[in-house]
Design brief:
single chain, alpha/beta, Rossmann fold, 6-stranded mixed sheet, 4-stranded antiparallel sheet, 9 helices, ATP-binding, ABC_transporter-like_CS, ATP binding
Length: about 230
Amino acid sequence: MKTLLQVTGLNAWYGESHVLHGVDMTVGEGEMITILGRNGVGKTTTLRTIMGILRERKGQIIFDGKDMMDVPLHRTAHAGIGFVPEERGIFATLTVEENLMLPPVVAGNGMSLDEIYDLFPNLQERRHSPGTKLSGGEQQMLAIARILRTGVRLLILDEPTEGLAPVIVQRIGEVLRKLKDRGMTVLLVEQNFRFASRVADRFYLMDHGQMVADFPVGELPERMDMLHSVLGV
């Protein structure tokens, strides 16, 4: 499997607070990777640092063979990395379709509106509704769909099921599996362990700003004692 993202010795700071302590991680093309960990261990910071939102960093981030450490944020997006933050960032006064059309296309393999509406039927029904009228689940679907139209090669999701009803969580899982079938590479942070165990190919377990374990989904049964200890699941 070709390596799409390679993170080596990644350190990051918020002011004088040293948050990441040498994060090492590899994401293969077409893989779906989930970072597990309790609140405050550095999961979201890892995503923000990879994306280039957090600039106080050192180490190495290689995406598709290119060094991304000195690349500005907008160039990171154009390189083919799309980020859906936990807060989603929906423009409340724009309609669903206007939100979808807002980001620029960065590559020719992005989904068309018809493909997006086939993947997210709820959005087609609400395409003329403003962002303020959407439920939390619809906003999450829109945030993901908006990135898919741009043609990114790596989709980064921060807590995609946070605060959503079980039926919507199930729908998000179905969407992620369909994206994997299309060859999309996905890196996500997820607190919902049951959800993560149904969609991920491989897990990284994070604690105190470091990756403390890396294992495929097939090893979950033998790793449960460790997960109970670190996550409390």
